[in-house]
Amino acid sequence: MVGKACGVEGIPPGKYCEPTMTTVGSQDTTGPMTRDELRSLACLGFSADLVMQSFCHTAAYPKPVDVVTHATLPDFIQTRGGVSLRPGDGIIHSWLNRMLVPDTVGTGGDSHTRFPLGISFPAGSGLVAFAAATGVFPLDMPESVLVRFTGTMQPGITLRDLVQAIPYTAIQNGLLTVEKAGKKNIFSGRVLEIEGLPDLKCEQAFELSDASAERSAAGCTIKLNKEPVIEYLKSNVVMLKWMISEGYGDPRTLERRVARMEDWLANPHLMEADPDAEYCEVIEINMDEITEPILALPNDPDASAKLSDVAGDKIDEVFIGSCMTNIGHFRAAGKLLADNKGATLPTRLWVAPPTKMDAAQLTEEGYYSTFGVAGARTEMPGCSLCMGNQARVEPGCTVVSTSTRNFPNRLGQGSNVYLASAELAAISSIVGKLPTVDEYMSYMAKVDATADDTYRYLNFDELPDFVDASEKVEISDEMREAAKKLSIL
Q1: Model confidence over 92-132: pLDDT tens digits?
Q2: Is residue 473 in a domain?
Q3: Which residue in 45, 159, 386, 464 is deepest, having the highest Cβ count within 10 Å?
Q4: Is the pTM of this model over 0.85?
Q5: Which GO BP terms sit in this record (predicted)?
């Protein structure tokens, strides 16, 4: 993919290159610095095909300086041909991922800019500005580590358990250590390539690529079949047309991206690794052997344990939110809470969907009512507790969180934070402790029984309001021609 973005067949590890940036993301805590860098570069128009700005880190609890940023940064981005979200829209990745073109390369000013399609190399504000302005990115090509899943996912096991199975297995194999002194980390600075889960929905695939940030990987790719990618892009075409109808700018950039997606859909193809590809390391994970949840232990996302090792630990607060969640997680949590029949929770429960579209759909389906009856604190779509600079848990409490990181004091002063699936988090909020494996499986049997209904994703091409809006938007021949030229390049 990097070779394609450089106009050559491939780029070997260690070689310097400058791949074309198809998609660039900027978020609001680093966005003002990126703006300053763009001014220094005298950038009056973006050369990257699509540049997007979000406001997910500061929208819920803005400081005076954030209010100014919210008012001024959108115009700066849009006048240069970029796309600007609005405060309250939600998390950068949950939007940016829906703007991707398969097998292309990008970057972003958030460490979790880890595409489920193609590959991205997150960077600081200066490099993000450079990529946006020039359309290329300076890169010393990293080596790759292959993680290959085999077997079948077992009952009660979630994708978040597979996420944590990666560091858990690496520790067992002596490839990763938790101790900081003399730390070993096979993933650090390398590309994490994942195979063996080809039928994942793209929303699910992002859980795996997202967590590569916690492994300190330079980037992540996931081998998927064409069918889930086609489904995702068809949905995203409708969403982007809806954005145009709702007045999001720059409309020309959105139109060009729609045309480029439709060009790919007309002839869908995905790149695959060479049969004789060489890797720095190959890690095999047999899903048949994962029969209970795997959690990240407090204060280090690498430190891992099975649920049976920590069951019974008292839990004070629970957070269900962050870019690691999608609408299926909130339905699962809602159904578990509904079965609790409004009983008072022994924990404080926080709920923050990733986008305003998720929040609207969950409201329409009655889940917000369930959260309200349970006494949950519902936050504006966005980063919420995960960011650690907005809302905070009580000092010294023990938390189960679906967020990305659990470093000391991140969610609250002196807090001890387990990272786990939304399902385990919801169960912990009901029982007030980390459940036993038997207790967990008893609750999960109810979730698995309605899995087809629970784990439905936001396919905008099936939602009448979005379809009706998209039908009013016509993509010009000029944009279609531009998209075809970009696809050839």
Answers
A1: 999 999 999 999 999 999 999 999 999 999 999 999 999 99
A2: no
A3: 386
A4: yes
A5: propionate catabolic process, 2-methylcitrate cycle; tricarboxylic acid cycle
